[in-house]
Give the backbone structure.
Amino acid sequence: MPVALVDCNNFYVSCERLFNPKLEGKPVVVLSNNDGCAVSRSNEVKALGIKMGEPWFKMERIAKQHGIIAFSSNYTLYGDISSRVMATLATFTPRQEIYSIDESFLDLEGFPAHTLQDYGQKIRRTVKRNIGIPVCVGIASTKTLAKLANHCAKKNLAGSEGVCDFGQINESARKALFQSLPVNEVWGIGRKITESLNLLGIETVEQLRTADADFIRTRFSVVVERTVRELNGIACIELEQAGTPRQQILVSRSFGMPVVTLENLNESVTYFATRAAEKLRKDGSVANSVCVFIRTNPFKINEPQYERSIVVPLMQPNDDTAMLIKAALFGLKHIYLPGYQYKKSGVMLMGLQPKGVMQGELFDNMPVTDEKADIRMKAIDAINRKMGRDTIAFAGSGTRRSWTMRRDRMSPNYTTRWDELVKAS
DNA sequence: ATGCTCCTGCGAA
DNA sequence: CTAACGTTCGCAGGAGCAT
């Protein structure tokens, strides 16, 4: 019954601080790709009123004023730290769901109820000692409630000291707490649904919990109905353990500067298709179609706008980079129009299925694996894994890459590159 | 009336 | 100096189509 949600505090900022302790106590922010928006904020930055997702250029003035230190996002570093945290958390439960780069659900079924608060503290201490990352723990009878409990732990509500176990608070305290929490704090209740709920007079978590589930289902959806039931302690959302492969793979980026020519778009699309194909093979899947899209900058309202995508079916379900690039470029040629300032492109692999058991209708449409291509891609993957990305690349992805994203504020890859670690020290 | 595929909207981190 | 606003994934529901 009981489940814990462990969530790292200000995760990307905490990763940066791990290798640069001078950042402790200072206002630190990590920016999204292309140094665009704030995606992780230290408590000092939050206190300055800077919101999640705020564009960097809008906060630059206040940032200079208060000495905010900004980093480009270093996903190689965060991914590596994340896997260490997750491995540590795995030792605390027989069943773990890694929900995101900085969050994990732990099944605590069978653990004595009165020991859970201490167990949560033990988890915090261990992660802090072994990895150095601060985390908060929420414990409750459903995943939705555990998320909410985690929020309370983060805000230090109900005297939680980093761990909040809803099983340990009495009914009247729980009610008061839920009445004080706005409904948008609930997992699954975003901007739009909050607006609609507010129009119906539902503004607090307690009001949503006591709402009529059938009414909520007809007025909203089965998803929101499940949320209401979960708030009442009825588990509707299963713990998902790793194993189910992805159904689609998307690789896309905004460009550091506007792109006009088909040649440059070709380069970017070749590069993205290459990255996507690597993920596909890592999953052990094949794709049956490739979607490619391009678009101008929607924030430049005075410039002519254009956005288009196209799906290119493949003859056979496939995981060969060369074939996927070919399909993507074929699609791009059809949707490209000259004369626009393009800001972004992307490649999506769709109709994914496991490579091993590609089902065919007996004779018709039987997938034939191209063994030579297979061996070629395996060799390239192995070399790039060992020697670094793009040691062997497809020529079409270019070498100057004028379109690559801005990353002016990168920290070194402390844990994955010896040379960068040495330079940093 | 029923069952599909495709597309869009929404939410999450 | 200016201009500068993320990425990736799954799910549900409705539209459109075929049967």
